[in-house]
Amino acid sequence: MPLDTSTYNLALLRVDGRRWNELRRVHAQIRTQAAADGSSYLEMGHTKVMCVVTGPSEPGPRRGGVAGGGSGGAGAGGAGGKAEVVVGIVIAGFSSVDRKRHGRGDKRTLELASTVANALAASLHTHLFPHSQINVSLHVLSQDGSLLAALINAATLACVDAGIPMTDYVAACTAGSTSTYAANDEGADPLLDLNHQEEQELPGLTVATLGESDRVAVLVCESRVQVSRLEGMLAVGVDGCKQMREILDRVVRDKGRRMIQEGTVEKGVGLDDMDVD
Amino acid sequence: MATAERSVVLPGETIDPSLIPSDPKKALRLGPGLRHIPPTDIVPTVAGQLVTNPVKNSMWIEYNSNRYIPSQNDIVLAQVLRSATDFYLCSLSPHTAPATLPHLAFESATKKTRPILSPGQLVYARVALANRHMDPELECVSASTGKADGLGPITGPGCAFDVSLGFARRLLMARSREDGGVGVLEMLGGEEGGGLAFETAVGRNGKVWVGSESARTVVLVGRALQETDRRGLGIEGQRRLVKKLVKEMR
Amino acid sequence: MPREAEPSLNEKQFVIQALQENLRLDGRELDQYRPLELTFGDQYGVADVTLGNTRILAKATAEVTVPYADRPLDGIFTIATELSPMTSPAFEVNRPTETEVLLSRLLEKTVRRSGALDTESLCLVAGQKCWSVRVDVHALSHDGNLTDAACLAVVAALRHFRKPDTSMEGGRLTVYTPAEREPVPLSWLHSPFCVTWSFFGDEGELAVLDATWLEEQVRVGSCTISLNKHGEICQIAKLGGTPVDAVALLQCTNVALTKVKEFSDLVDQKLAEDLKRRDKGGFMAELRAENDR
């Protein structure tokens, strides 16, 4: 069913009842898997992603082409003095409405994996772990738009949980525009955080920024849109990333506080930074 | 060249005996591209120009190939790949077997004072050993005098440029302008180039390092070398190229 | 698989040092492309693009097939990319590297998903017969910036391509040979082109166009922007790498638009030249076609 955007300007509400600058409900957890070095579970609306990080560890035997491995910077793994970030993405068959099998060599999945790997590699201090490998394995349980953003956020959380030194959070979200490309509506307003239905119909882009800065680590636009609309969409996207960073930060701090209260970690020097009540 | 005698030979051809220098006192020396099959046959193994030097009683083949094959006493520009227990592994050309450079093959190097080279570093070295069935071995010190003679790790601002093997050899000739037909470096340093200050290290493996305090000079010299090589310019063409480049970069 | 040979430390350091002084190893400006050449083959649909030492050949072909069951009204349009060992020993046949996957995705998004070719016009009999147009991209030599060159080659090849004319009479489909009827061009809607920026420096503050292979090995990030001359973005891909300021990215998009207009003019001009070259005695040929009908 085509998406009816005519009410957007009138009611200022979207199909799911959000306003233009509202994120969907984000729910995230870290340390969900006991066996992993770092793990996370993230929901952005109905998009649900799980992430497991192992490493930094000695690179094992290469699995032939399974991991859509990306490499950070110039000296990647092997002989280079940097850790290699290898990302594998599994998209579950039941994750979307039409049950489609995603083969291992699916180019779209490989591209997603490579993007996540390169985005993380720029933020992680990979030079501290020469000759090693950081394995990030992502599982998509449910898809409802903003998949790449959810993958990046989940991977960031899991890397924080794994205790890998990093510059800042890499937080991502999507932004769109209220009218389709063909309408060529100059007065189109930007939208934040697209769901699946909006993603299908409206132009949109995925932005990931480093921490609270305006510096863009990932910018992916896959739909046709007038160049004049880019600025507005990008501004809303970058703003959304800042909100997302706050949310991710809160998740990490909450977990830290709970661990201290439970006595899992000793009360230490870093206590004041943790905002413990 | 001491001789005007230049003829094109193909691998396996018989060489006209009149071309072989025959000095009664000195032993005949064979250079790259020639093979001696006892008792008397001398067979070319590559296609190229046969060059002889009656004074030194030597002959070799000039050819321009893409792949560098190390031979003893060649001066090369090697790139350190990694360090092993007592030697560095160096690459002379991409996708070929690495050469070894012993940790102690530097001037006055001992176990404690040897230079520490990081991966990716360029080293100016001599091929000490090049056997057919072994990886080549490099050295940065003359075995007889114990002096470096300009060899060693390359530091300081500058960049390496790729040129063809034949061009690198022409650059390395003692009188490169007369024998090799390459005067581009002299011109750049001379009046045509406005007296640019730079230094070079030419490796037989087709790499030229150009060093200078000014990045502009390095780029200019590098471009002049690569253009000369690519377009096969003569002395006059080189002069025009140098003038054009110097004007452009000002 | 042999690894791609890495440039030496001295080269890497120098490239960055020179860029900070606004210098490139081949003497270009930071936002200057290498000499771009576009030639067409004798056959329709063959385009050969040379960008400095990078060379790409694209060939378009068409055949009649059965449309996909879920899209009975659309023809089939595929872009096949192959980086063979001829380009570099690091590429292997039948084992796509990351470079190849990303290149093929980029072309797919830029040309196919942006609707440059009207696939509905490829339909002959709904649900039964349609044209399948395929473009094969071959990288003949790799000296950086494969994306921009490949995209230009694909667009040029498709715009140069002519498919055999067809007619429907009483449920009978006839495909005419070039001798019977002049082949017809594809129904082309707009021409998107890729412009790739490479970023250098710790904060990615140096933006450079048309990086050579050496520069690509040293860069900290890249961003490929696809646009058409009407100022419509077809695709943007900054897939990770060092974060770059958002305002700088917008700036890059604007410069990219001027470059795209240049590419667009170049392709138009070359196509016109090629048409003129082929048109010798073309008037007579056209007259004959008239008589056939």
Automatic annotation (TrEMBL), chain A:
Tell me, which GO biological process terms does this entry list? nuclear mRNA surveillance; poly(A)-dependent snoRNA 3'-end processing; rRNA catabolic process; U4 snRNA 3'-end processing
State a single Gene Ontology molecular function. Answer: RNA binding
Q: Mention any Pfam family matching this sequence.
A: RNase_PH
Please give the coiled-coil regions recorded for this protein.
none
InterPro entries recorded:
ExoRNase_PH_dom1, ExoRNase_PH_dom2_sf, PNPase/RNase_PH_dom_sf, Ribosomal_Su5_D2-typ_SF, RNase_PH
Q: Which domain of life is it from?
A: Eukaryota
Q: Where is the Exoribonuclease phosphorolytic domain?
A: 22-165
Q: Which CDD domains would you find in this protein's record?
A: RNase_PH_RRP41
Q: Which GO terms describe its cellular component?
A: cytoplasmic exosome (RNase complex); nuclear exosome (RNase complex); nucleolus
- What PANTHER family does UniProt report for this protein, alphabetically? EXOSOME COMPLEX COMPONENT, EXOSOME COMPLEX COMPONENT RRP41
Q: Which family does it belong to?
A: Belongs to the RNase PH family.
- This chain belongs to the protein called 3' exoribonuclease family, domain 1-domain-containing protein
* Organism, scientific name: Corynascus novoguineensis
UniProt lineage: Eukaryota, Fungi, Dikarya, Ascomycota, Pezizomycotina
Automatic annotation (TrEMBL), chain B:
Q: Which domain of life is it from?
A: Eukaryota
Q: Where is the K Homology domain?
A: 158-215
GO cellular component terms, alphabetically, are: cytoplasmic exosome (RNase complex); nuclear exosome (RNase complex); nucleolus
**Pfam families attached here?**
KH_6, Rrp40_N, RRP40_S1
**Any GO MF annotation of the entry:** RNA binding
The cellular location(s) given in this protein's UniProt record come to: Nucleus, Nucleolus
Q: Which Gene3D superfamilies match?
A: 2.40.50.100, K Homology domain, type 1, Nucleic acid-binding proteins
Record's protein name: Ribosomal RNA-processing protein 40
Organism of origin is Corynascus novoguineensis
Lineage of origin: Eukaryota, Fungi, Dikarya, Ascomycota, Pezizomycotina
Automatic annotation (TrEMBL), chain C:
Which GO-annotated molecular functions does the record name?
mRNA 3'-UTR AU-rich region binding
The leader peptide range reads none
Entry keyword set: Cytoplasm, Exosome, Nucleus, Ribonucleoprotein, Ribosomal protein, RNA-binding, rRNA processing
Q: Where in the cell is it found?
A: Cytoplasm; Nucleus, Nucleolus
Report the residue ranges that make up the Exoribonuclease phosphorolytic domain in this protein: 32-164, 191-257
- Main subcellular localization, coarse class? cytoplasm
**A biological-process GO annotation:** nuclear polyadenylation-dependent rRNA catabolic process
> Does this UniProt record's set of keywords contain Nucleotide-binding?
no
Looking at the UniProt record for this protein, which Gene Ontology cellular component terms does it annotate, in alphabetical order?
cytoplasmic exosome (RNase complex); nuclear exosome (RNase complex); nucleolus; ribosome
Q: Which domain of life is it from?
A: Eukaryota
Protein family according to the UniProt entry: Belongs to the RNase PH family.
Q: What is this protein called?
A: Exosome complex component RRP45
Query: Whose protein is this, by species?
Result: Corynascus novoguineensis
